Amino acid sequence: xxxxxxxxxxxxxxxxxxxxxxxxxTTPNAKGKDEPLGVMSRDDALKKAKEMGGLDLxxxxxxxxxxxxxxxxxxxxxxxxxxxxxxxxxxxxATEIKEIKMSYKIDVHDYEVRKKNAVKFLKQGNRVKCSVMxxxxxxxxxxxxxxxxxxxxAEMDDISTKEGRPKREGxxxxxxxxxxxxxxxxxxxxxxxxxKAKRKKKEARQLNKKAAAEExxxxxxAPNDVSKEAPKSTNDDDLLDLxxxxxxxxxxLFGSDDFTDDLFx
Length: 265
What we know:
By secondary structure, the protein is of the alpha+beta class. It has helices spanning 42-51, 74-91, 108-123, 142-155, 181-254, 258-264; strands at 22-28, 34-41, 56-61, 68-72, 97-103, 127-133, 160-162, 167-169, 172-179.
């Protein structure tokens, strides 16, 4: 059984792999935005990268005049690039196609239900395939099918646009509608707001866990402090008892009178 060779990562030209000549050099600032450093030779750019902590000189746009390079840590640059690609894919126009099906002689109630579902899918950022089904000799009424699809598209015109005219697929007619840019923009904004809310909720949960752990640790330390102080009070009591025993022994030995008391006090 043949195995596929692993896909090798396509790295951009870096450092000495970049050809000699002038380069337009940038570097990310503290906010993550590219800050221009000006036009300089490759050797000067490599020297600058070395001065900035041994970073890499990465060719990001070879077709520009002069070519554009970025001074950055390559592993961090690759991570940021992959992160942006995932974000673009996540927020890009939805590629999923939902479908609604109906007959050319559909009644008013069922038609409204189909339209309501199509509007829901469009507001979620999905493309919608609207199909009119024909059975047997019903296909001769395809004109009614075209009219039905045109009517549906016109009623959803405020949130969608048609991707061309309805077309025949075997015995059926189909039309694809796609959400308007402002709808997609709103969907992406809502999605980002939901992600932000989830992140905040997660951070709050972590802070609560941390506070609970610190409180539990403080509760454990308090009894230990009391136990450490306990022997001190016990030792004081033992000393008092010892002094009393010594005084009692002296009284037994010498007797107890004012002269003796003054002598040993």
